[in-house]
Structures are given as structure tokens and as C-alpha cells.
Amino acid sequence: GAVVSQHPSRVICKSGTSVKIECRSLDFQATTMFWYRQFPKKSLMLMATSNEGSKATYEQGVEKDKFLINHASLTLSTLTVTSAHPEDSSFYICSAAQWGMRGEQYFGPGTRLTVT
Amino acid sequence: SQQGEEDPQALSIQEGENATMNCSYKTSINNLQWYRQNSGRGLVHLILIRSNEREKHSGRLRVTLDTSKKSSSLLITASRAADTASYFCATAERRGQGAQKLVFGQGTRLTINP
């Protein structure tokens, strides 16, 4: 149980375009989803927290107009990187949690974004 | 701010040996969790230890927590080549009701040599 999927697993896009990444909880209802960014051989940096049906809470230094997060249902959150630039190239990972899951988060497999 | 600093940053041992990784943090925590990440993949939750616990076991894993020193250790016994991965500790601060924000350490890259 507690499986989280992400789509796509890899995406290459041109500078200036927008890219949408989906995060789905497959067998549980995720009241909260988190979006992280990870640079090569580095740790995960929390970008934002999204609760179903409400606006995402962004961490300091993360541009909310650039990284649009929508958590429209209890099983789906999307991250849209708008007007992507090469410096947005990174590994994006989502996690999902449910109230009452004893504080555990379940992570998706990640999405490798390359902006050319 | 980042907390959950780990050492060593990289560890290379022979198969069958034990691997110990340490994590230090700076603030009060609700719990501390250890995760594993294979190269280019997502994270796998290994073990969670609460602030009122001192030691926890899961299979070949043993985690200790010393809240007075704000540190934790992860011991992997009888290591296998398949244990090669990066290991991260993450501290949890409670945000009102609901899921907890995790702050990750920099990770330890563990290599098990056959």
C-alpha cells in the first residue's frame, strides 16, 4: 500500500515553455502533498506544501508564480514549471501524506526535468 | 534552515561489514526519519523514531536517537551490495494538525563493495 506515482518520469523542454508534473496517490487519499527539488548529489529541498482544496504554502525563496501547484483532489497534485529556464533543470519529487498516517510521507519516483 | 546534517558524506565498505551513518540536528523535533534513495530514484522510507524513543530496530537496521545531543545514527548490519544507495535523515516539525514538514540532511552515499 501507500504508492505514489509521478508522471512523466523524464521530460525535456525548451526554454520558455511550461511543463506540468503530476503526482498521484494510488491507494490512499492524500490530504497533504509536498513538492521537493533535488540537485545532483544533493539533498531534497522542500518547495511547497499543498493541502487538498486550498492554496499551496511555499517555502521562502520559491517563486509561487513560477512553480504553480494545484491540489484539486485527494489523489492528485500538479506542479507546473512556467516559462522554464535551464536553471530549472532538476529532479522534482513529490510526497503524499494522510492525516493519521503517523507522520510518514510516501514519495513518488521523481521527475527529471531538463530545460534546453 | 537546513538541519539534519549527516556524516560521513560518503562511506565505502566491504560486503558483510556494518555501516554506520550519523545525523545531527539543531531544533526540537517530533520525530526523525531515515530514507534511502537509489540513484535517480525516489525515496524509500526506512524507519521512523519518535522523540520519546531511544532505539528502534527493523530487520538489519538499527536506529538510535539521542535528543540531548540532538543526534541519531543508522546502523546497517551485514551489509549487502544491494544496500548501495544514498541515505538521508529527515526531521519532522509538526505543523498544526496534519502532515509534518520534513527537513532533510545532506545524505550519506553508501557504497558496498562485493
Short précis:
The complex is a heterodimer of chains A (116) and B (114). Chain A is mainly β and 116 residues long. Chain A has strands spanning 4-7, 10-13, 19-25, 32-38, 44-51, 57-58, 67-73, 76-81, 90-97, 106-107, 111-115.
Please explain how this structure is put together.
The complex is a heterodimer of chains A (116) and B (114). Helix content of chain A is 0%, strand content 52%. Chain A is mainly beta. In chain A, strand 4 (32-38) and strand 5 form a beta hairpin. In chain A, strands 2, 4, 5, 6, 9, 10 and 11 form a seven-stranded mixed beta sheet that branches. Chain A starts with a strand and ends with a strand. By secondary structure, chain B is mainly beta. Chain B has strands spanning 5-7, 10-14, 19-24, 31-37, 43-50, 55-58, 61-66, 71-76, 85-93, 101-104, 108-113. In chain B, the strands form two sheets. In chain B, strands 2, 4, 5, 9, 10 and 11 form a six-stranded mixed beta sheet that branches. In chain B, strands 1-3-8-7-6 form a five-stranded antiparallel beta sheet, with no helix packed on it. In chain B, a hairpin with a 5-residue loop joins strand 4 (31-37) and strand 5. The N and C termini of chain B lie far apart (38 Å). The mean pLDDT of chain B is 89.
